[in-house]
Amino acid sequence: MEVKKPSESFTAMNELVLPNDTNTFGNLMGGRLMYWMDIAAGIAAGKHCNAPSMTASVDNLSFKNPIKLGNVVHIEAKVCRAFNTSMEIHLKVWGEDLLHQYKYESNEAFFTFVALDPNGKPRQVPSLTPETDEEKLLYDGALRRRQIRLILAGKMKPNDAIELKAFLNAK
Ligand SMILES: CC(C)(COP(=O)(O)OP(=O)(O)OC[C@H]1O[C@@H](n2cnc3c(N)ncnc32)[C@H](O)[C@@H]1OP(=O)(O)O)[C@@H](O)C(=O)NCCC(=O)NCCS
Questions:
Q1: pLDDT one-digit tens code per residue, 140-171
Q2: Residues lining ligand 1, judged by CB closer than 6 Å?
Q3: Residue-range domain boundaries for the chain
């Protein structure tokens, strides 16, 4: 099976916050941002596996700073680990005020996508080899994050999450 690098799935997306994207405070609605993040994650997953893929889960999203009406949204997405049929995608989001020329962090999240065959069944994805220090850190943590997700989804018994248990016991 082919081996890919995280940089091969790198996806950058920009959006402008328009009035129809905002809540009553004049900030970007969280749901709209999640929609754009899902698209960016889906593109990154597609670049990695070159097959149709579907959102399986979204990790907790906490919004550090609201993105204001008229500001630009920057979303960066990259596959940080490939398992058997699933891929974990790391996303970073910033807002940018073009008038006052500054950028600010909005949030960070992990999405999991599953590649599907023509019958809609999960299919194997290429494996992934991290290159940079940041990519290696994300790659190592992905196994534990996957175990947390599968436990929460009722698809793994906590006792089977060996790497997660070892990590928690070491802390
Ligand atoms: C995601 C989906 C394809 C998984 O199918 P499934 O029959 O549960 O398949 P499996 O249990 O064999 O799991 C397939 C892969 O999905 C992963 N997976 C399943 N549920 C998961 C979850 N809640 N979180 C993270 N990964 C999950 C499994 O770990 C497995 O990955 P691996 O092969 O790399 O080990 C299926 O649940 C589905 O179609 N869900 C609806 C997705 C959807 O509609 N998304 C759009 C948003 S509404």
A1: 999 999 999 999 999 999 999 999 999 999 86
A2: 54-57, 83-86, 112, 114, 122, 149-150, 153, 155
A3: 3-128
What's the fold here for domain 3-128? Thiol Ester Dehydrase; Chain A (3.10.129)
- Nearest-atom number in ligand 1 for the CA of 121 is 3
What are the tokens at 161?
């999450």
Closest CA to 101 of 69, 65, 67, 71: 71
Ligand 1 atom nearest to CA at 112: 25
Nearest-CA residue for ligand 1 atom 17 is 86
Within the chain, which residues score under 50 in pLDDT? none
**C-alpha 54 – ligand 1 centre gap (Å):** 8
CA dihedral 117→122→123→129, nearest 10 degrees, is 130
